[in-house]
Each structure stands twice: as structure tokens, then as C-alpha cells.
Design brief:
- With about 300 residues, the protein is an alpha/beta fold.
- The chain is built from 10 helices and 7 strands.
- It has 2 domains: about 160 residues, Rossmann fold (3-Layer(aba) Sandwich); about 90 residues, 2-Layer Sandwich (Alpha-Beta Plaits), CATH 3.30.70.2210.
- The chain is globular.
- The strands form 2 sheets. A 4-stranded parallel β-sheet has the order 3-2-1-4, with helices on both faces. A 3-stranded mixed β-sheet has the order 5-6-7, covered by helices on one side.
- About 50% of the residues lie in helices and about 10% in strands.
Length: about 300
């Protein structure tokens, strides 16, 4: 019996070896692809010699600002746009990172709500907003005698409905991460290797993306959503969005986080806190978090 067990163990080891080798080969291949994309990115940055980068403190722009800083030094300038659309937490983290990392950065104050086309919240709101914000970033770059302005769009962004990309193209904003073919997963992997704190940070989006198209955006609504999400972050959900439908808050969390709301005490507490912020109703979206869920109502 012992001999048979030993034989089985030996066979298992022999069987495991090819699989292990194949997995190692896949990992090595991916590392090679990553390195190739990274080299394309650094080559693009070396060509332009100086650049102003729209910096939000998110996964993509943090990675781009870091690499550009290594390649171009002070010739890479990060611009943080302070506006009602930006979550306060993101603003604080962006400034903290730039300060600690020694990034050359500048803050521009902007109020997109002053523009009627943006506040009205049409399906192409992002187009007008990007046009406004990056138009002003271009003015800043011109004042600094810097020819190029870049954003942190990655290779995945063209797969979703993003009218803001049209504005970037019209303004001739460059997207080095896209040019290098870097996906969000690639950027996370490289950020981890570089020791960046954002490598596993949740993808962020402006607060306006929490308001359904056609519903007028106000500063009060944006503040309410921001406060609601800040309250809910204490529960460490893997993903989180508070979508504001009038006086109803629709909560999107990761599928693995749904069990939290099976506890009646949790449900009652969350509802009470969000009602204090001005919501009359609080609902859990049974489909869970998904990027751009408000785009689902748009014509295909």
C-alpha cells in the first residue's frame, strides 16, 4: 500500500511539473510584454522632452506622473484640477502624493457647473467638461512654454462610452498610456513593481458620474454623494458607488460585499446615515457595482 502511495505521489509530481512550467512561461511572457510597453512609454516621453499632465491621483495618472518625472524631471508638470466634480478625498490624496514624491505640481481652480451645457447633464456632458478643463490646462501649459499636455487615458478606455475622449482629440491632448497599449491591469502591475501606493486603488470617476443623464447637477447633490461615499468607505467594500436618483440613493458594491447588507443592523444604520444627508430612500442595486452603469440606459 505504501509503495502504491509513493508511486501515486511520484506521478502527481510529474504531472504537476509541466503545469508549473507552463504557468511560469505565461508569467515570463507577460513580463516581457509589460517591459516592451513600458519601453514604448518611456520612448514617447523622451521624444516630447516636456509635458503638463492632468493629475487626479488615480491609478493611471499617478503612474504616468511618476514615470514622466523619472524621464523628464522638473520638465514634467502635474496639474491638479480642483472642482466640485472631484471627490475631496481624491484631491487630498493627489496633493499628498505629489508633495511626498517631490512632483512639480500646480493646482487650477475650475467650476464646470458654471457652464449650462455641463450642469444640464446631457449624455455627452463629459465632452463639454473635458473641453473646458483641458482647454484651461492648455492655457497653463502655454504660459509655461510647454507644448504638450497629456492625460492618463489607458488602452481600456475606448471600450466604454467616453465622449470626453473626443474633446481630448480635438484639443490634441496626448495619451501616452494609450499609445503604449497599456491597459488598466498593466498599469496596476507596473505600479506594484514600482511600489506605488495606488497599484490596488479602486478606479475613480468624477462625482458627476453618479447623477443620471438629464437630471440637473448641483453642488449640493455632488456634496451629498461625496459625503455618502466617504461614510460607506469605513466598511471597506471592494467597490463602491452611490448613484443619486433624485431623493433616492442607489448603492452599488462588489458582489462579494452584498452579504454585508444581509445583516439588518447594517441596513438600518446605513439607511439612517444616508437619510441624514438628505436622501429619502436608500436602495441596494442587486446587480452590484459595474463601471458606467448609468450608460446602460443610452441607445445601443
Amino acid at each position: 500500500m505504501k509503495k502504491q502511495t509513493e508511486n501515486n505521489t511520484s506521478e502527481a509530481k510529474q504531472t504537476a511539473c509541466p503545469n508549473s512550467s507552463a504557468k511560469q512561461s505565461v508569467n515570463t511572457d507577460y513580463e516581457t510584454v509589460l517591459e516592451h510597453k513600458y519601453q514604448i512609454l518611456t520612448a514617447e516621453l523622451q521624444k516630447i522632452r516636456s509635458v503638463v499632465i492632468g493629475f487626479s491621483g488615480g491609478v493611471d495618472s499617478t503612474f504616468l506622473v511618476t514615470v514622466a518625472g523619472k524621464i523628464l524631471g522638473d520638465k514634467a508638470v502635474a496639474v491638479i484640477v480642483a472642482s466640485p466634480f472631484c471627490p475631496q478625498r481624491e484631491m487630498t490624496e493627489a496633493k499628498a502624493f505629489a508633495t511626498q514624491a517631490g512632483v512639480n505640481f500646480h493646482i487650477i481652480q475650475e467650476n464646470p457647473l458654471a457652464e449650462e451645457k455641463i450642469a444640464a447633464n446631457p449624455p455627452d456632458r463629459c465632452y463639454y467638461c473635458k473641453k473646458l478643463i483641458f482647454g484651461n490646462v492648455l492655457k497653463f501649459a502655454s504660459e509655461q512654454a510647454i507644448k504638450y499636455v497629456a492625460d492618463g487615458s489607458n488602452a481600456d478606455d475606448e471600450k466604454d462610452y467616453r465622449p470626453g475622449l473626443k474633446a481630448l482629440k480635438e484639443l490634441k491632448i496626448i495619451s501616452p498610456l494609450q499609445l503604449a497599449g497599456l491597459t488598466k491591469a498593466d498599469i496596476r502591475a507596473l505600479s506594484r513593481k514600482m511600489g506605488l501606493p495606488t497599484w490596488q486603488k479602486e478606479s475613480a470617476a468624477c462625482l458627476a458620474s453618479r447623477i443620471p443623464y438629464g437630471e440637473i447637477i448641483t453642488g449640493e447633490k455632488l456634496v451629498r454623494v461625496d459625503k455618502a461615499e466617504n461614510y460607506l468607505r469605513q466598511f471597506a467594500f471592494s467597490h463602491l458607488r452611490v448613484r443619486s436618483h433624485g431623493d433616492l440613493a442607489r448603492l452599488e458594491v462588489g458582489q462579494q460585499d452584498m452579504a454585508f447588507f444581509a445583516n439588518p443592523d447594517h441596513r438600518i444604520k446605513v439607511a439612517e446615515e444616508l437619510k441624514k444627508l438628505g436622501f429619502n430612500y436608500v436602495a441596494l442595486d442587486l446587480e452590484g457595482y459595474r463601471t458606467g452603469s448609468l450608460n446602460e440606459v443610452l441607445p445601443k
